[in-house]
Design brief:
This protein is of the alpha/beta class. The chain has a single domain, classed as Maf protein. Helices cover 34% and strands 23% of the residues. The chain has seven helices and seven strands. Strands 1, 2, 3, 4, 5, 6 and 7 form a seven-stranded mixed beta sheet that branches. A hairpin with a 5-residue loop joins β5 and β6. The longest helix has 19 residues. The protein is globular. 40% of the residues are buried.
Length: 204
C-alpha cells in the first residue's frame, strides 16, 4: 500500500505544497484543512513571537472545527533589521525585500504547533541565511518567474532562489516552511507516528 493510500493520522492546517511534501518525506499521512486567520503582525511583535502566535492560532482554529485528528500548523517569516518581511505585494515590494537581503545575513523563523487532545505542542526553528549580492536585473527576472509570490521574504530556498544563498546555518527544512526535527518532536507529544511504518514497507 502506498503512502497516499494510508489512513490519515494528521490534519495539516496549510495549503502549502512544500509543507505537504515535507510531511510526506517523513511518512505522515495527512489531510489538508487550511486555516483562515488574520496574519497581520502586531506592533513591536518579535519574529519568533509572531510565528509561534500564528502557528498556534491556525492549529487551534482548525482543531475547533475538526476534532477527529491532531492538527499541525506552521508559519514562517524572514526577519532583518528588526523588521518582519511578509509576502511581497507586487514587483516593487519584492525588489525592496531582496534589496534588504542582498549581500548579507538574515534570520528565518518557523514556528509550529500541534493541537490535539493533549496540550498544544509548540516548537520554533531559527536559521541564519546569507545571500550573495543580487543585481537589480536578477531581482526583476526572479519576480517574473512567479516564484516570489506568496513567499515570506520574497524567495524560496527550494527553488530558483537557491542561487542567491551563499550560506545557511540552522534548519534547511525550517527555511522551506516546516522544520522536520522540531515537527517530529511535536508530533510525538501527540502520539502521531513519524514514518508510520512506511519506511519498512518501502525497504521490503
Amino acid at each position: 500500500m502506498g503512502e497516499q493510500e494510508q489512513q490519515p493520522v494528521l490534519r495539516l492546517a496549510s495549503a502549502s505544497p512544500r509543507r505537504r511534501q515535507l510531511l510526506e518525506l517523513i511518512g505522515v499521512p495527512h489531510v489538508v484543512t487550511p486555516a483562515d486567520i488574520d496574519e497581520t503582525p502586531r506592533a513591536g511583535e518579535a519574529g519568533v513571537d509572531y510565528v509561534l502566535r500564528l502557528a498556534r492560532e491556525k492549529a487551534t482554529a482548525v482543531r475547533a472545527r475538526h476534532a477527529d485528528l491532531p492538527v499541525l500548523a506552521a508559519d514562517t517569516t524572514v526577519h532583518v533589521d528588526g523588521h518582519i518581511l511578509e509576502k511581497p505585494l507586487d514587483e516593487e515590494d519584492c525588489i525592496r525585500m531582496l534589496s534588504l537581503l542582498s549581500g548579507r545575513a538574515h534570520q528565518v523563523f518557523t514556528g509550529l504547533c500541534v493541537a490535539g487532545s493533549a496540550p498544544p505542542a509548540l516548537e520554533v526553528a531559527s536559521s541564519e541565511v546569507t545571500f550573495r549580492q543580487i543585481a537589480r536585473s536578477e531581482m526583476r527576472a526572479y519576480w517574473a518567474s512567479g516564484e516570489p509570490r506568496g513567499k515570506a521574504g520574497a524567495y524560496a530556498i527550494q527553488g530558483f532562489g537557491a542561487v542567491f544563498v551563499q550560506n545557511i546555518a540552522g534548519s534547511y527544512t525550517g527555511v522551506m516552511g516546516l522544520p522536520l526535527f522540531e515537527t517530529a518532536a511535536a508530533l510525538r507529544q501527540h502520539g502521531v507516528p513519524v514514518w508510520n511504518g512506511a519506511l519498512g514497507r518501502q525497504a521490503e
